[in-house]
């Protein structure tokens, strides 16, 4: 069998570990031929592929980013949302010209939705979930998330000393467009006093009262962790808005930190290397068994798979009954609601 691997959407620590997991398992255990399709789904259309061998897959386990390149393929996604006969023929012809028996698509929600559309067009596909946001439906965790949480937690740890020394309110903005998994986990791991998530929104009076009450109790500083997807007036950057309003309304000196893409870059954590390796290996097994139209997943302690039809178009979000939210509330952490 001959399989292709592509990466799409934003980069995340652990992609190369996953490419390696798929490729080395396919080559060494199942005797498959493997090619890497460069620069996302556009590489499929242009048949931009390179052979992947044991040699080319060596020394990439620890690398951040992706050796295949990636892109956000809005034009390709639009092309297959309502494909005409010409579009269908072009996509299928590119797949056939490459001689593929299956295409492995590594990416987040948008990628999994696109992969499902390819499946409906008749292509043999397997999806592997990838995002630091941890918001792909159908799996408990995605690789890249652990690394991002480690980086964000270290940043919060470092803010504590400045906050205490200067008796300041420190607001740190963390990544997550629509969900607050990074903010929740890093906020709890870093001992944030207030955690604001896109899923919950916030009440400014509750935030201000919590900060004021801490000051009155002798806690002369506060750490506020806020997700980048939290909505604030005038579509302003959440950290900037909250910092300004907290200082204006309480009189407490406040500073902002926006961690940004630092959370997505660099080497993956050992956990993400292992997770990517396991998910990649399971993808190769599904291809060998000809179980197409599936997305590999980790559910509980098991590496397994789910139908792409169950995943496409859905979001895994933080809910009020998420155990870590419940635990945080019981410990006195404010979620602003």
Kindly name the structural category.
Answer: alpha/beta
Q: Helical segment tally?
A: 12
Query: How much helix, percentage-wise, in residues?
Result: 40-55%
Strand adjacency order, main sheet: 3-2-1-4-5-10-11
The 3D shape can be described as: elongated
Which sequence of SSEs, written as H and E, runs from N to C? EHEHEHHEHEHEHEHEHEHEEHH
Give a count of the beta strands, DSSP E runs of length 2 or more: 11
Proportion of beta-strand residues: 15-25%
Query: What is the domain total for the residues?
Result: 2
Distance between the ends: 54 Å
Describe the structure.
- By secondary structure, the chain is an alpha/beta fold.
- It folds into two domains: 2-144 and 268-311, 3-Layer(aba) Sandwich (Rossmann fold); 148-264, Phosphofructokinase domain (Rossmann fold).
- It is built from twelve helices and eleven strands.
- It has helices spanning 15-28, 41-45, 74-81, 85-97, 109-120, 145-166, 181-189, 204-216, 238-250, 270-288, 308-311, 323-330; strands at residues 2-7, 33-37, 49-52, 102-107, 125-129, 169-174, 194-196, 222-227, 254-258, 294-299, 302-307.
- The chain has a seven-stranded mixed beta sheet with strand order 3-2-1-4-5-10-11, sandwiched between helices. The chain has a four-stranded parallel beta sheet with strand order 7-8-6-9, with helices on both faces.
- Helix 5 links the parallel strand 4 (102-107) and strand 5.
- The longest helix is centred in the middle third of the chain and has 22 residues, at 145-166.
- The termini are far apart.
- The mean pLDDT is 94.
């Amino acid at each position: 069998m001959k399989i292709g691997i592509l990466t799409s959407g934003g980069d995340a620590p652990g992609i190369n570990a996953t490419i390696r997991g798929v490729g080395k398992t396919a080559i060494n255990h199942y005797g498959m031929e493997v090619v890497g399709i460069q620069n996302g789904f556009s590489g499929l259309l242009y048949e931009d592929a390179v052979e992947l061998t044991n040699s080319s897959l060596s020394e990439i386990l620890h690398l951040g980013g992706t050796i295949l390149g990636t892109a956000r393929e809005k034009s390709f996604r639009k092309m297959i949302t309502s494909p005409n006969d010409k579009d269908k023929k072009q996509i299928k012809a590119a797949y056939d010209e490459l001689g593929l028996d299956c295409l492995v698509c590594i990416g987040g929600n948008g990628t999994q939705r696109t992969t499902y559309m390819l499946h409906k067009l008749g292509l043999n596909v397997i999806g592997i979930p990838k995002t630091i946001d941890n918001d792909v439906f159908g799996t408990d965790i995605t690789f890249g998330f652990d690394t991002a949480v480690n980086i964000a937690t270290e940043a919060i740890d470092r803010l504590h000393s400045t906050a205490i020394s200067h008796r300041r309110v420190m607001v740190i903005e963390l990544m997550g467009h629509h969900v607050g998994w990074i903010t929740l986990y890093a906020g709890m791991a870093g001992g944030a006093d207030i955690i604001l998530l896109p899923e919950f929104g916030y009440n400014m009076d509750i935030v201000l009262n919590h900060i004021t009450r801490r000051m009155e109790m002798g806690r002369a500083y506060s750490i506020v962790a806020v997700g980048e997807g939290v909505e604030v007036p005038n579509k302003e950057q959440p950290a900037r808005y909250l910092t300004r309003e907290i200082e204006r309304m309480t009189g407490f000196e406040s500073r902002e930190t926006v961690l940004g893409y630092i959370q997505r870059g660099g080497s993956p954590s050992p956990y993400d290397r292992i997770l990517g390796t396991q998910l990649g290996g399971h993808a190769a097994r599904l291809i060998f068994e000809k179980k197409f139209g599936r997305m590999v997943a980790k559910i509980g302690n098991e590496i397994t798979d789910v139908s792409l039809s169950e995943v496409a178009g859905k979001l895994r979000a933080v809910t009020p009954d998420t155990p870590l939210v419940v635990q945080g509330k019981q410990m006195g952490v404010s979620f602003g609601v």
